[in-house]
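Give me structure tokens for this 380-residue protein.
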Amino acid sequence: MERRHRPILQLLLALLLVVGAAPIAPAFAQDADIVDTAIAAGDFNTLVTAVQMAGLVEALKGEGPFTVFAPTDEAFAKLPPDVLQAALDDPEGLLTQVLLYHVVPGKVMSSDLSDGLEVATLQGENVKFTLGDGVAMVNDANIIVADIEASNGVIHVIDSVILPPSVVAAAAEEAAEPAATPTPMEEMADIVDTAIAAGSFNTLVAAVQAAGLVDALRGPGPFTVFAPTDDAFAKLPAGTLDALLADPTGDLTQILLYHVVPGKVMAADLSDGLEATTLQGSTVVFKLADGAAMVNDANIIATDIETSNGVIHVIDSVILPPAAEGEPAAEATPTPAEETPMLLPVTGGDAGSGVGIALTAGLILLAIAGFALAVRRRPV
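Here you go.
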């Protein structure tokens, strides 16, 4: 009996060994393409947005196969904001070049890599791999997760955005160029034109135009303007901006003038606790601490934007003059009990003498009246 079952037991044992040796299925579904796999992961939102802006979605959904070195959202966050913005502002140029530099044609698994290996990307320039001490790198980025298979290739996750050598060289060349000769002041744009050209102050410019302050802010000045961005105006309660624009010569003008200080006040001129009088008449207070600067409750997020007739400092909130921070309380008519008693002077003066004479005459009259009343009541 035991011999009869021994072959069956051996077969079951062999089957278990085969099943146990089978590779465990990855967490990502291999029937999804590279784009959908990245979307499903949830860690590549910036990458996916960039791919969409560059118009590369259909290409990366193609047959491939492709090998994508995918920077996480944290990797993109490590880029200087101006670099990322410059790429997003040029989706068909710089952004596309950077994205294609993260894609290698063919399916390159981690086991295919070797130290010093160089591979051409879809952008045309090579990436180089470094392997050592159990760590794999592509250029200067660490490969932190490898071999995420998709239906049309494979994804390797990296912790930094890698840039094509040509882009790095161009940036270095630009940085090495000598600073341009400062433009003569008369050739610089004035405060209004500088704000218009920036493109971040559309609401402010519209408000200045509605209030009829354009010509004033084009004047010789100099003026220091604390300019709220469009996002700053968007933080106002709903309906507030419309109400202000409906009264351009009233509250709108007062608020705008509260953002302007006469003279040219550079960032270096500020000090903690400094107060400055605005064209509206009220003062603003500056706070400096931990490398941050504030005017009232607004953060100064960019400073010293010079113009032909002054300087602009960018702020992240609209600041309100004291009279506009809340509705003025109705003036109450004082009740008799609330009236302040008039105080008589203690020492000389014409008013004091007149009051003293009046009091003396009153006392004499009271005495005479009392004496007459007493005589009348005395029995005869």
